[in-house]
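can u pls check wat happens w/ nicotinamide-adenine-dinucleotide
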Amino acid sequence: MSSLAGKQGLIVGVANKRSISWAIAQAAAAAGARLALTYPSARLEENVRELAGKLEHPLVLPCDVASDDQVAALGQALDEEFGGLDFLVHGAAFAPAEALSNPFVETSRESFRVALDISAYSLIGLTRAVAPLMTRRGGGSILTLTYIGSQRVFTNYNVMGVAKAALESTVRYLAADLGPQNIRVNAISAGAIKTLAAAGISGFSSILQVYRDRAPLRRGVDQSEVADTAAFLLGPGGRGITGEIIMVDAGYHIVGI
Ligand code: NAD
């Protein structure tokens, strides 16, 4: 039997075929899960519906994670359509473009607010909306995506690094809160991968080259490698793991000079 057979999951963060969340959706579907995907705006709806068409019995729902009302409506729609939820993948992140190219010291209050709201707070809001659906199924697994820019300085990652630090701390606090309900909360810290979000970071291609030159595996990682680890964490193999940040980065994080 596949490891996610009979499971129902929500995936937030599919924008196009390069999205890490789309690779996770494919891996979860291949492992037997039924999925709901979301789109944040009318502009992305068609993309998401087209990709969802490759899945069996997908549910496609709107959700701008900056809106409490939309997050609550998402929880309600899942309650009606699925009746319960086994996992959530949170792959939403955003920072205003100028905050990813200007000197960090120029970060505006508004850019800081938006980046932290969409990239970190949204994990709390979404978790609150789906936790009752998971409790009904005897527990669940929540997974978010982070980057090592939370711990170390990467040129132009700027306020997104601050948001990822908040996100990683959020993972630990949520894990402690929800552990008694058998809900696990983890993050994968992925190596740099060329996606829509990554394209927003000035000089991103030179970061990719650093991975090829310096990571122990002498290469970067791709979406499918992150997705395989995700399927493990979402499924029974990850049942003893919570509050963890797992590095899937070809070993880049261990390297000093
Ligand atoms: P992506 O652009 O495909 O995904 C980002 C997603 O965030 C998009 O689907 C976008 O629609 C969604 N989003 C933005 N604002 C939103 C909002 N208000 N409401 C709902 N959704 C919203 O890029 P990706 O690289 O696949 O990013 C997925 C996650 O992986 C992000 O958290 C990113 O920081 C993280 N990550 C990416 C890399 C990388 O190098 N690409 C490395 C480590 C971590």
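The chain has one domain: 8-249.
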